[in-house]
Amino acid sequence: MPADLFSLLAVRESDGRPLRVGLIGAGKFGTMFLAQARRVPGLHILGVADLAPQRARAALARAGWPEARFAAASLAEALATGATYVGDDPAALIAANGIEVIVEATGVPAAGIAHCLLAIDYGRQIVMVNVEADALAGPILARRAEAAGLVYSLAYGDQPALIAEQVEWARACGLPVVCAGKGTRYLPAYHQSTPDTVWEHYGLTPEQVARGGLNPQMFNSFLDGTKSAIEMAAVANACGLTPQPDGLRFPPCGVDDLPTVCRPIAAGGQLAHSGTVEVVSSLTREGAPVPGDLRWGVFVTFEAPDDYVRQCFAEYGLRTDTSGRYAALYRPYHLIGLELTVSVLRVGLRGEPTGRPLAFNGDVAAVAKRDLVAGEPLDGEGGFTVYGALLPARESLARGCLPIGLAHGVALRHDVPAGTMLTWDDVFYEPTSPAVRMRRLMERTFGS
What we know:
- The chain is of the alpha/beta class.
- It folds into three domains: 5-158 and 337-350, NAD(P)-binding Rossmann-like Domain (Rossmann fold, 3-Layer(aba) Sandwich), CATH 3.40.50.720; 160-186 and 225-333, no CATH class; 362-446, Antifreeze-like/N-acetylneuraminic acid synthase C-terminal domain (Type Iii Antifreeze Protein Isoform Hplc 12).
- 37% of the residues lie in helices and 17% in strands.
């Protein structure tokens, strides 16, 4: 029996058993996935669920799908004809006959948790594009999926899964992992950025924003540090790495300097300890571009375990620090949803995740962007009120930190000064909500 993905898929195609997939959320990531999924023989997107079906249809058209291909009047018709159904009911899609893999790409933490739990109930494999949900409750969701004989996977194309792949490579080679992470555009002032100021930081005009249909709150999450914190929590939990005590430092660093910067302070670098995560900035603190930046890429730094391996590093041209002991592997780009089929095929054909949370090592707490007043509602990732900061999970639990994924739609009990890391006691929240209950269960399960 062939084992490579393309051959396995060819067998399914020839047998008339295409791998049937349901996509929840037709935003940018989902649209990019759709653009490539239609080109993969043996892969059938049975249905797309989005709160705005017309927007989903527009996404399919924009991704190059002929209208007839997504004109199925029902999920049953889609199953019978090989077409795709577009609707607004994620639960119906998850329950549909024939579905094998659910791709959760809403970006809404509470929705992602609910969809994942329903997928487990129906015996569906899960590809969790929704890294916000993964950072909030991924370890407990992955454990539930495993107990049901299912796979819960991070999404290839997104940076956490690509980083996990590099960590796995290093460990498979017997190379101790010193640091794993990604690049981004960062300045300290970005933590106070809001949806009203985000485009000036990106240098985009209103016309460019309108033409691209860009979401200011989502893009502000990338800029204000929240998305970086969420993604590095996912990496820490999937790879058994421990965030630094003060979270992410965002050191300016180009690719040639990765082995020097991303090594422990004791060895001359900028890490609090080995075996951690970090995000390097493509800008100096003065705002100048860093030569050879890794803004769109991912990396892992690793250590030569002895003098012989260090000698081999030199013999084969690895760029190292001055000691020759630390080196790095990096990938300059990630292709978002264009690469997501890798996860879908590995999960659906081989039952193999492209990274999954195994522990609760990293957490993301909500931090006040400005002075907040009693009664004021929080507006979550990328909004006007809070940003997310990475910290070790044990510290988050000890302090009772409010997870960024639950810092949306809850009101403050009292005034909170700017820069304060919020706690559960600072807000009014509904303890019986499914997302809160799942998060609390994870805290009890992994807290020890």
